């Protein structure tokens, strides 16, 4: 796999993480993704839920494959405008409060105004607070401080801030000279970039896959129903391209592609997992086979919804998932190699 495809994937990831898309607030990100696939020459359409379904071509449309990635991310929603003009928040997806202190955010109002702010404790100065070290960091205590001169609930609401507004975190995207990719929301925008790079590879080389290949970029994965619909007729296999877990008890590193054999939803199709392993071996990909203790994927949702398909899950290794995440360009390369081998292209 030529380095230009890794570079292309990372360029698309950087552009995509710059478009805020907490789950339920994904319209602009979906528009970006749809246009990018169309630039590469592929027919795509919006699903009713707001995802993007892409036709990547192929011949055998009675034995098709659907790839699933997701562009929705974790985030927060304003749950109350407090008397002091600061904002209480409720999580969107699995965003954990203890790691949010000091994070810069944007608050998107329904009137179209966008305000910057910071997530802080109610009394965040170490030179003032007696109990700073012991203070609880939770959704009950953390608040969003707007970068506006507001001191009351009335003043904040006069700006147009209300319950239900979206709170999006700064992704802080970086690529190091050593090839590490650091950002929030690599889950799963890194894999959306990989999917775009796969499409570019197919387009550049005039490839027609032996089997019909669809791609569903979903928008509600973080709350569990992203892949529950929009499976075209003739699809017999589904493959989620999501983040590979990195951590204690998991073999995968950020430089590998992880092939998941089992997660908290149970085992993946033995035949699909075996095919993925064989594809990795054929292509010379650096891979691991892993069991994830706390994980669920889009393609499992597809099965729960009653679709009769075989299923699998792969992804580039991502460290510190749902926090400030880290991967590596080698993980991108190895994921592309497995996809190339799995699709026999």
Order of helices and strands: HHEEEEEEEEHEEEHEEEEEHEHEEH
Please report which band the strand proportion falls in: under 5%, 5-15%, 15-25%, 25-35%, 35-45% or over 45%: 25-35%
Q: Averaged pLDDT, please?
A: 97
Give the class from helix and strand content and strand pairing: alpha+beta
What's the total count of β strands?
19
The gross shape turns out to be: globular
Structure explained in plain terms:
By secondary structure, the chain is α+β, with helices and mostly antiparallel strands. Helices cover 26% and strands 30% of the residues. The protein is built from seven helices and 19 strands. The strands form three sheets. Strands 1, 2, 3, 12, 13, 14, 15, 16, 17 and 18 form a ten-stranded mixed sheet that branches. It has a six-stranded antiparallel sheet with strand order 5-4-9-6-7-8. Strand 15 and strand 16 (266-267) form a beta hairpin. The longest helix has 19 residues, at 186-204. It starts with a helix and ends with a helix. The model has no long low-confidence stretch (mean pLDDT 97).
Task: Give the arrangement of secondary structure elements.
Layout: H1 3-17, H2 27-39, E1 43-46, E2 52-55, E3 60-70, E4 75-81, E5 87-92, E6 104-108, E7 114-120, E8 143-146, H3 153-158, E9 166-169, E10 174-175, E11 180-183, H4 186-204, E12 211-218, E13 235-241, E14 244-246, E15 257-263, E16 266-267, H5 270-283, E17 287-291, H6 298-304, E18 310-319, E19 325-328, H7 329-342
Parallel strand pairs: 3-12, 3-13, 13-18, 14-18, 15-17
Antiparallel strand pairs: 1-2, 2-12, 4-5, 4-9, 6-7, 6-9, 7-8, 10-11, 11-19, 15-16, 15-18
Helix pairs in contact: 1-4, 1-7, 4-7, 5-7
